[in-house]
Amino acid sequence: MVEAYKAKKMGGKERLHALLEDIFAGFVGCTDMPPIDFIPELLEIYPDAKVILTVRDPHRWAQSIKPVAKNTGLWWLPYLMWPVPGWRWFPTLMKEIGTCSRNVIAADEKYSDPYLGEFVLWSRSCSYGNLTACSFDP
């Protein structure tokens, strides 16, 4: 997935499509981060896909994401994760996700209530083939 973020930044659509096809091969669905950073590209590859946008209360969402956002940038995390094959790329992936999110909606590093609202507006502004929006209030 890190390579897909790099390809997206470099603007290599052909390489990005090949990477995404490889990453999602055999799957019938995907959810959450990081796939949401690639919705337009995934819809180019899978034009009949259905996109479901869930909308949460911004304050409750901000409270739930703050601990994750705060702890993914710890300087020692890459060293702790390196011996674990499935997790060694987690810190790099979190950095790419954060960078992509800030670029898409011009958000800063503070995850606050307006962040979710801005993301929802951005998501709805994308031209999806088959978009369904629904509320999510746990």
Question: Uncertain regions: pLDDT < 50 for 5+ in a row?
Answer: none
- Major sheet: 2 strands, parallel
Q: What is the string of helix and strand elements?
A: HHHEHHHHE
Distance between the termini: 29 Å
**Helix-strand makeup class:** mainly alpha
How many distinct domains?
1
Strand residue percentage: 5-15%
Q: Helix count, per DSSP? A: 7
Quaternary structure annotation: single chain
Radius of gyration: 16 Å
Identify the notable features of this structure and list them briefly.
about 140 residues; mainly alpha; two-stranded parallel ribbon; 7 helices; globular
Write the layout of secondary structure elements.
Layout: H1 2-10, H2 13-23, H3 39-45, E1 51-56, H4 58-71, H5 77-81, H6 90-105, H7 113-125, E2 131-136
What does this molecule look like?
The structure is a single chain. By secondary structure, the chain is mainly alpha-helical. It has one domain. The protein is 54% helix and 9% strand. The protein has helices at 2-10, 13-23, 39-45, 58-71, 77-81, 90-105, 113-125, and strands at residues 51-56, 131-136. A two-stranded parallel sheet has the order 1-2. Helix 1 (2-10) packs antiparallel against helix 2 and helix 4 (58-71) crosses helix 7. The longest helix has 16 residues, at 90-105. The two termini are 29 Å apart.
Gist of the model:
The protein is mainly alpha-helical. The protein contains 7 helices and 2 strands, in the order αααβααααβ.
